[in-house]
Amino acid sequence: MKKKMFMYNTLTKRVDEFIPNEEGKVSMYTCGPTVYHYAHIGNLRSYIMEDVLEKYLRYAGYDVKRVMNITDVGHLTSDGDTGEDKMLKGAKREHKTVMDIARFYTDAFMSDCRKLNIKKPDVVEPATNCIPEFIHMIEVLLDKGYAYVAGENVYFDTSKLEQYYVLSAQKEEELQVGVREDVDEDTNKKNKTDFVLWFTKSKFDNQELKWDSPWGVGYPGWHIECSCISMKHLGEYMDIHCGGVDNIFPHHTNEIAQSEAYTGHKWCNYWFHVNHLNTKNGKMSKSDGEFLTVSLLEEKGYHPLAYRLFCLQSHYRKPLEFTWETLDNAVAAYDKLRKRIQRLSDDNSSVTPDDSRQITEFKQKFAEAMANDLNTSSAITVLYDMLKSDLSDASKRALAEDFDTVLSLGLMDGEAERETDHDTDTELAAYVEKKIAERAAAKAEKDFARADEIRAELAEKGIMLKDTREGTSWSLE
Predict the structure, then answer these.
(1) Does the bond joining 250 to the residue before it have cis omega, within 30 degrees of 0?
(2) Which end of the chain is more exposed for a tag (fewer CB within 10 A), N or C?
(3) What residues have CB less than 8 Å from 468, skipping those under 6 apart?
């Protein structure tokens, strides 16, 4: 029998009982990263909480299929369909091709996830794999009258919808032309809220990735990819769609608009959004000077799983403020918790009737906390209460291991060893060593400008070089 689950649903603005479309099975979609730079720990808070949601649903007895996209084209620097493509921006920054940038930062993101014990989704699909699907959906939307061509671009016509702002309390008169940077208004749009489904070369001649389409050579808008990738792998009815609160508008709002116009029916029943990680200066971002990565935490001596505990100690719907002091507190709690579990003897004594009763009670309390809108803080309290109880060490170890299938804090690892991707690590090392050799050759030829350029390229990727008498060493920033 499946355990009940209650979760806050952004669509209904209340905590709803979770009832999947198909009994016992859950279709779940996660908005993946735009791989133009490293993910900062604020980005990763969302992925940690989505990971916990997936693992609890599995713990509760559901068969979960989770899909995640990789945005390697189409995501512009402004919410208003203006500015340059973020992938092109990353390629310019590092003097690389867009696909080189995409591969490098996809690997970096996956490495960060492994360090944080975030399970890889069942399906991970780059946007550039699905151009035919994007074109097909846009053709259907045009045929149905939900889209139009203007200035050689294809736009979704939001005026054709009875209700556009289904996820937010946004009002049209409150909208800004560009909310992330100063941009000019797109005069091709019939309505301020219309959004681009397909860009043509007429607007972005410097775009590196382009494909033939019925509307000219160009590339897809950002919003279309999540609708198509989710339907490709999960079908036209989806249970849970996840993302950060900054995705609610316009990204997820636009996903709903185009998906339901395309299918002709309700698309997704539950919307799960994780709040921001803030600094004292506000929301953490890549442009505010507080660009904290998992590698930087490691460089400073912090275990990534201590950051995971830091996130789990707070409710996912509340803003979480990051300071080094609060992270230090989480580290102390994590180390103490792990050592306490490691000290438990691994005896094979039989479980007493009283142990059996308490085991059942603690499992029930843990499940109730998690089923109450993913209350990880209360679930961790249950873990502490269990460790303070008079259960045998063997029973405590068994329960800690059971709870950690959801919490994924590495509690049963003697040295808190984390999974690593040796192929990725080897590939990164080979790449850096090749660059170091190129730099040495440039210096030998007295091409010091090229040598400095190589050092700068590596620094942009968070790779720091150190020249010594023994040679050049490197480390991740």
Answers:
(1) yes
(2) N
(3) none
